[in-house]
Amino acid sequence: MLPQHLKQIRVLMLNDKENLERTLFRLEQGFELQFRLGPSLQGRRVMVYTNYPAEGQQFKRDKFRVLAWSNPAGKEDDSDKFCSLDLKTAGSYQYYFGCTESERSGGGYIVVDPVLHVGGDNHVIPLDCITIQTYLSKCLGLLNDWPDRLRVAKESGYNMIHFTPLQTLGESRSCYSLADQLSFNPEFSPQGQCYSWQDVGALVEKLRTEWNMLCITDVVYNHTAANSAWIREHPECGYNLVNAPHLRPAWVLDRAIWHLTTRVAEGRYEAKGLPAEITSEKHLNAIRSVLWQDVYPEVKLWEFFQVKVDSAVEQFRTLLQNGTKPDRRKTGGEKGLKIVQDPQYRRYGNTVDMDSALETFVPHSSSPQHIEECCGWLKQKLNELNQEQHHIVHQHQEQAANCIVGNVVYERLADHGPKLGPVSRKNPLVTRYFTFPYQDMTLEQELKLLTQPDKMSHFLAHNGWVMGDDPLRNFAEPGSNVYVRRELVCWGDSVKLRYGKGPEDCPYLWEHMRKYTEITAKYFHGVRLDNCHSTPLHVAEAMLDAARAVRPNLYVIAELFTGSELIDNVFVNRLGINSLIREAMSAGDSHEEGRLVYRYGGEPVGAFVQPSLRPLMPSIAHAMFLDVTHDNECPIQLRSALDSLPSSAIVSMACCATGSTRGYDELVPHQISVVKEERFYPKWNPAAAPSSAGEVSPQTGIIAGKLALNRLHQELAAQGFMQVYVDQVDADIVAVTRHCPSTHQSVVAVSRTAFWNPKTHEYNNNVPPMFIPGKIEEVVLEARTVERHAGSYKKDDKYINGMPEYTVEIKEHIPLKESTVVKQAGVTSKGRSEFVQEITFQKLTPGSVIAFRVSLDPKAQKVVGVLRYYLSQFSPKYKRGSVADDNPPDALQKPLAQLMSKLSLADMNSLLFRCEAEEKEDGGGCYNIPGWENLKYAGLQGLMSVLADIRPNNDLGHPLCANLRQGDWLIEFVSNRLIHREGPLAQVGQWLEAMFNYLKHIPRYLIPCYFDAILVSTYTTALDATYKLMSSFIQNGSTFVRHLGLGSVQMCGVGRFPALPPLSAKLGDVPYRISPITGEKQQCCVSLAAGLPHFSAGIFRCWGRDTFIALRGLMLITGRHIEARNIILAFAGTLRHGLIPNLLGEGRCARFNCRDAVWWWLQCIQDYATIVPQGHEILNCPVTRMYPTDDSEACKPGEVEQPLYDVIQEALQRHLQGISFRERNAGPKIDMHMRDEGFNVFAKVDPATGFVTGGNRFNCGTWMDKMGESDRARNKGMPATPRDGAAVEIVGLSKSAVRWVVDLHSRGLFPYDGVKVNRDGKEVLISYYQWNQQLQQSFEAGFWVSGDPNDPNEKHPDLVHKKGIYKDSYGASSPWCDYQLRPNFTIAMVVAPELFTVERAWNALEVAEKKLLGPLGMKTLDPDDMVYCGVYDNALDNDNYNLAKGFNYHQGPEWLWPVGYFLRAKLYFAKKLGEETYAKTVTLVKNVLSRHYTHLERSPWKGLPELTNENGQYCSFSCETQAWSLATVLEVIYDL
């Protein structure tokens, strides 16, 4: 079992309705696959099913099991919930998921690669190490001679042999036309001996253990030889005229064309211009006219699709005369004549559905005249339909004529065709489509056989392929017209097999093929699926399941011609194909050949180090890249003999399986035909003469070069050279680099192709020089194809011989100076540590190859080793290639984790975050990437957000990577920023600087990947240290909880200027520092930014309302209790007029213009007392008052101090007494938009209801505080949402505060039980108990909107717009505003749930959910309201009063923070309504939260926005990350 950090884990996100059947996911044995829920599924009860078998069980394709979920962080949210598979068995496996037993919401496949073993020690051959050579088995001779012939593959460096089928062949002698799938071909046994499969198995095992070679062979499922004995006994195994009667018309046409052949062969058509020897266009036209004049009229194919009109009409007449009515159950009362196709396809066999006829043709009466009239209509219609069928068959015949002529052109006229010569019985006009196992007879006699099933069952359809056909459709099944249209390119030696839907449809065939498969899997290590794209998928699936049951690590390869990668993936997925055969011959030039190398494997040079746990990425099928396949044309004919070596060198450098076919390396100058070739392969003899036809040696063809290339290919794959770079040096020269990311060695192979013969094509003599970065250690090989005097090629009669006139001149492992290909090598230095060698060539002739082994410059090599040594403290994957540091710098003596453990959370804010405005305060800023954009943060998160997008895709072309390669600016920015800070942060900066000092001395192309490695290590270490400083809720929470917890670090920091007013000197645990400005000691408490980037620095950083809405989530729940206490007390010191300031402005510039901040502050003190152990002690903490009276100037710290409980009492007393004042400095100086009346602030407790009420229509004292700014639209100075009167959330918050002080007083923790106020000149005591009771009684009477016109509490029934909700306010100056549906009542539900009746609350929440809940936020206004507008544009200035200058800020756009209260309220009341409702609500909550999680994950700010436009659309005017948004979402999870 691997340690967790080394185990490769891939994560597959499941998304609702996502079907990935055509996406390929490749995995290796030993990997763990985790399924996780995407946002659309979180919160739902999802079940994941798979047919990957449980430990110790057999694989059954249709047996699925449910995977168990595990949730490491507990049950609050589903962000980390996963179920997993430990992949230990190769094969193709399916998964699907749904929320109920029967439902499938999505699914797909995974393919697990086999592990292949060779040698006596059973060592592993990785798939990328494979070098394969194909042999046509029939050319190997007797089995005892095989080792001598196969030895050529071993001595040429191949490690896998592909045999074409070894079974008894059919009479055509094609390698792929098998007469008996179960018997070993007897021609491999000498006379008097009979070799068996066991003997083959023994040879295969000997090759595996002694030669380190694996063997695979073909399986052919589509067809069998036409002369197979078993198909004669079991004709049901093919498509014959009994089980596939739809083929009868095609058979009739096929026989007619055969009779045409015999007549043409006998010269009987010469008079019509059609001789046996077809040589011209004139002859082709003659074929067409003979078809149309003689053949088609004779066979009358249309009759198979027509109705006999007279008898149908007669039958109809009888029914009408008998008064028969149509069967309405069949017709459904719908008119329309239906013709029934005769299932037996007899001439005029089609019939009329009489029910449809009776429904369609209805006589006016039963009189004979009307009946005749009706029969006339039917007759006319049937004649029309017959004519239509005639037309369709005419089109089929046109296509058939085209296909017949096309075939003749290819087979008899085309230069690249077989040129078959005169038409004869042996070489007919076109290949026959059906077998005909009887004596010759006339066409007329043959047609009579159509009535004799015992004869018809032996007319079997041949197999073939159809140009451009849908590979997922079987062209021999009903519905396809391929045979009658003659579109099949037919193999006349093979019968197409008919499997049906499953074994029950053709038991003999399934059983026969299963045995064949099991024999193959028993003796061979893998299979090639021949003609895979035409094999019915369900058949290949079942057969491969049987094969893997015999050999679990079966290697499966195939060649697909589907023309679509997506359809390729269907085959690869369902069959578990491990490698798809690709061919270099498909490239038209060297540029395309190089592109194929890049396409088929490897990652870019300098790629990023990927984490062991990462998303499962779709891949392309693993390639088996061959220089040529055994059934394709010969490269020497298409290119030149000289190209064989360079092209196979390009192929060998590919990071995938590679290979060739026997004969390529020997320069056989023609295709070795799988049908016609009967000669033997030469044997191996190291001393063979160049002119020998029956033997080959290392000097034959390019064998010596291929041996070196194959060895190199295997070494590169085995040693992890998995990075690839392809450079098109010029039109003919391709340089391929393979790079090892741990040792940083490279091999560069330069190949000069010869697509054209140098004797006839002029090649450029000026070969451009090459620049190779690093130090060339050696020339691994240099090889040229050269001419020699050994006679010229003459095709041998007995052996498959090659061209003796060429051989390879090769040197291996030589120093550069001994190279004859390179003229000289100069060293140029490029920067500190980049050595670049300039290579000039002298003998890089067409057909030559040179490969260099390149290391980094020795100094750079040492530096990289040291860098890897320091990185290995974070991950063992850096161990390989690491070198201990002889002289470690001081800064690196301590592990980074130890340095990080000294940082406070305020330090972490500097290390990880800080946006542009925050940095500017310190004279800095965020890094700007030229040609791109500024990073979001100056801290590590700014870079990590960008790298998170670059890393998985290895996007080395990104401007950030370019900037890193171009210079050290960014590197120095990261470390210098920290070195200039105090204490422990500077030490982290020095650690980074020391690491970067090494980084600067490695080649520039490697800098992005190592910079990322250093940053990832620093960042993850910082996060670990951060979470250790937080509450156990965050430490043990899910990824989502931790991300939200980081919001606390993001928002809470200490700037250059203190944002909070000073605290009492008597308080303990207050942080101090030396002021960077005055040099004196000063307090440096953490303050909470409202949002980034707009509310992060200076006077606009701290807001009373925002701070206290966010404080519980970001500071109390995260465990930052002392910092929370300091913020509460600092704001307490600024109390004035009984209010807490809205804009804090360090207290000195505070604005006391909001009615709600004081109540949020009181709520936070209550939360502090509840959450923090001994939290009530805060009530006795000293507060240093800045404004002890309303009119005093700001006092010095410590001048007036009082305990917090007195400040609380003052706030309550002032409200009960009534607050009324005018803001200081009223006018444009403090607010350029507000009208004069707006500066008058008023708040009091309504004696009739106990509600806190206040405001006027010219100011906005709650969080919905948009003030109009447009002169043009005339809304300037008018608040969009004054919410005057009693705002619902303030009523709730005040109820919460009063209830709490009543409780505190009863426990002796608060000295006051009420307040004394002046009423009409008298001092009156108002008790808190009494106020609490009054609120309880008044609330629903005042706020519930019943919609009942007779409700005595309803003052304005005419204004009710939505019923069953709670009002947004009570007593507004514009009464209709009270009735607007907004999300604010949910806040009251959370802080004072006792005010609400459960059923009513639930009803109101349902309405809010339906009308206000958006993807991320809550609509701030009912979308049915006439002034609703969901898109906020603060820059728009037009004439629209409701929109101009962002007037609709709170009139529709979806704000995030109210969602937290809505969800918490739902959870609270759902619990009251029972288990089922609660479970449903938890699902909703998790589902909503999953969208926040997704946003948070993807956001470069790592935050949640202030608001979105309608339906969750991005709003460019919103803060990208907002404190209260993060806080309230975190509170929901805390409640869960």
Explain the overall architecture.
The strands form 19 sheets. An eight-stranded parallel β-barrel has the order 12-13-16-22-23-24-27-28, surrounded by four helices. The model has no long low-confidence stretch (mean pLDDT 93). The chain has 1536 residues and is an alpha/beta fold. It is built from 41 helices and 59 strands. The two termini are 36 Å apart. The relative contact order is 0.06.
List keywords for this structure.
single chain, 1536 residues, alpha/beta, eight-stranded parallel β-barrel, seven-stranded mixed sheet, globular
Structural category is: alpha/beta
Please tell me what the overall shape is. globular
Q: How many strand segments?
A: 59
Q: Helix amount, in percent?
A: 25-40%
Alpha carbon gap, first and last residue: 36 Å
Summarize the helices and strands and which ones pair or pack.
Layout: E1 9-14, E2 18-20, E3 26-27, E4 32-37, E5 47-50, E6 65-66, E7 82-86, E8 91-98, E9 106-112, E10 116-118, E11 123-125, E12 131-135, H1 146-155, E13 160-163, E14 167-169, E15 178-184, H2 197-210, E16 214-219, E17 223-225, H3 229-233, H4 248-265, H5 281-299, H6 309-321, H7 328-331, E18 339-340, E19 351-352, H8 354-360, H9 368-413, H10 443-448, H11 453-456, E20 462-466, E21 488-496, H12 507-523, E22 526-529, H13 537-550, E23 555-558, H14 565-575, E24 579-583, H15 590-599, E25 603-604, E26 613-615, E27 623-626, H16 635-638, H17 644-652, E28 657-661, E29 683-684, E30 695-696, H18 703-718, E31 723-728, E32 733-739, E33 746-752, E34 770-773, E35 775-787, E36 806-814, E37 822-829, E38 835-841, E39 848-855, H19 858-871, H20 896-900, H21 905-912, H22 916-921, H23 940-953, H24 959-966, H25 969-979, H26 983-999, H27 1007-1028, H28 1032-1035, H29 1039-1051, E40 1052-1053, E41 1072-1074, E42 1081-1083, E43 1087-1088, E44 1091-1092, H30 1104-1116, H31 1121-1132, H32 1157-1171, E45 1182-1184, E46 1201-1203, H33 1204-1217, E47 1219-1222, ...
Parallel strand pairs: 1-4, 1-26, 2-9, 3-9, 12-13, 12-28, 13-16, 16-22, 22-23, 23-24, 24-27, 25-31, 27-28, 29-30
Antiparallel strand pairs: 4-7, 5-6, 5-8, 8-9, 10-11, 14-15, 17-21, 18-19, 20-21, 31-32, 32-33, 33-39, 34-38, 35-36, 35-39, 37-38, 40-43, 41-42, 44-59, 45-46, 47-48, 48-49, 50-55, 51-52, 53-54, 56-57, 57-58
